[in-house]
Design brief:
- This is Polyketide cyclase/dehydrase/lipid transport protein.
- The chain is an alpha+beta fold.
- A six-stranded antiparallel beta sheet has the order 1-6-5-4-3-2.
- It is built from four helices and six strands.
- The N and C termini lie far apart (48 Å).
Length: 159
């Protein structure tokens, strides 16, 4: 199933006082750190994730994996699309960066997923009704924004 054929669940956005190219490395770092936390490998195995461990090239590029996800698209400064599946769901989390003027970006996180069967429906209910999904995505966006805005200008580190 292609990412764009998965049903749209939600989208969250934040404005960042940095260019898309400045935001990109922080986005990759935050996403990887979030999904590589202790316990994530065990959880990924418990739910039967197709990608239960960290593997592949770094920095993140197509084919890189971490528990629960593989990188489907990695276009620096533009888009990081993650895809995954397990017993209860097939899903994608797509981060997009858009320039919003000089030294300003819009970072969007779109979630798409399908939850087949009764077990999938119960999993969807737990994931979405608990608020855990929204909280997790918003935390990632906030962390990327803070890191990007606190980073020294790129020319200050090259001297």
């Amino acid at each position: 199933m292609r990412i764009d054929s998965l049903p749209h669940l939600d989208e969250h956005t934040t404005l960042v006082a940095a260019t898309p190219d400045e935001v990109w490395p922080h986005l990759a770092d935050v996403v990887e750190a979030t999904f590589s936390r202790p316990g994530m490998t065990g959880y990924a195995r418990l739910v039967g994730a197709a990608d239960p461990v960290t593997s592949g090239p770094r920095p993140l590029t197509e084919g890189s994996t971490f528990p629960g996800f593989h990188v489907a698209t990695a276009i620096p400064g533009q888009e990081l699309a993650l895809r995954g599946s397990h017993r209860f769901s097939t899903y994608a989390l797509i981060f997009r960066l858009d320039a919003e003027g000089p030294a300003r970006s819009r970072l969007r996180a779109e979630t798409r997923a399908v939850f087949p069967g009764l077990a999938g429906g119960l999993y969807r209910h737990l994931l979405l009704r608990s608020g855990g999904h929204v909280l997790g995505v918003r935390r990632m966006l906030t962390a990327v924004r803070r890191r990007s805005e606190q980073a020294p200008p790129s020319d200050a580190t090259s001297s």
